[in-house]
Amino acid sequence: MVNHYSSKLVEEAVNELSKLPGIGKRTAMRLALHLLKQDVTYSEQLGNSIITMRTNIQFCKRCSNISDQEICEICNNPRRDEKLICIVEDIRDVMAIENTSQFKGLYHVLGGLISPMDGISPSDLTISKLIERVHNEDIEEIILALSATVEGDTTSFYIYKQLKDTAIKISTIARGVAIGDEIEYADEITLGRSIIGRLPYDKGL
Amino acid sequence: MVNHYSSKLVEEAVNELSKLPGIGKRTAMRLALHLLKQDVTYSEQLGNSIITMRTNIQFCKRCSNISDQEICEICNNPRRDEKLICIVEDIRDVMAIENTSQFKGLYHVLGGLISPMDGISPSDLTISKLIERVHNEDIEEIILALSATVEGDTTSFYIYKQLKDTAIKISTIARGVAIGDEIEYADEITLGRSIIGRLPYDKGL
Predict the structure, then answer these.
(1) Is the Cβ pair A50, B2 closer than 8 Å?
(2) Residue B177 pLDDT
(3) Which domain holds residue B24?
(4) d(Cα B100, Cα B9) in Å, to the nearest integer?
């Protein structure tokens, strides 16, 4: 497809926008036109917020969560339980778990999952940093909160192997039929896991 | 939904990104995370291309097409036929028609269509500028290339009324069954229009 942009400026913006995941040339063009119809200030705010974010972002030295400081807000919060660490894939999982208000410990963000297919090995993740934390901090329990996929299971097992000879308790989040889902429609693996992981009635509510 | 961003920088970028049409908070977060995983230079290029485009863009003084100069490349091209003007809704239509390589005249970009529902009246478009062009330039034919919607038809009719008493020929693009489409599945209005607009066999190829 030959494209006749009547403006090099628009062509460049469309090219940059279409490098974003899930945004093709057509969508990028629609976004560029939208920006042209808006006030100049919006494009300035958008452009500057992207540049400022990328330039000034830091990764927490302790848990690798994104942060505006050297140590993130969660690690810095004296009311959180330092002895309990939840292992997650990325910062979206931190946000999802924080939204539940059910977890009062700290996190450790791996930055991905082990995936030989995608060329991601343990050394690409923050696993060695986790082992270091386990040795230097007074940790009692680690909760593995990784996706129930081949990659998630591989990563969980790898971490489990690294830590099983320490005194730390290693747990994993419960798998089971989601709240609101009908038993009939649950897949058999999930349903099987929810039976194996059954709880005393008064604790399962 | 309470959102726990561990970084104000990310929160701001997500807020700005989610103001774009078709991009919700979740997609914006995915885009922000993608940017964080890329090199700093990409975010700088993206941000700057957006700001530069919006700040420096001009609208051609003649046809209202977007342009990097006062007069756009198409209006400035001496090999194009100045006596033939194609009326389009926006610059995406200019690009679409340019891609066909079938049109050698100039354009007039309306900047929208008349739509009382959306509060868009003729005075919000560049129609008066078109009338001016008709009076000041040596135009022989105007081709209406607007969408086959209520808004498109209303706008076409409005322009037709304004110009019908001049010596200018007013035509509209052909409507009909698309190349590659089966007659059986064409909607009846399109099929009806393609019968009314039938051509001598040797011209219809």
Answers:
(1) no
(2) 80
(3) 8-56
(4) 44
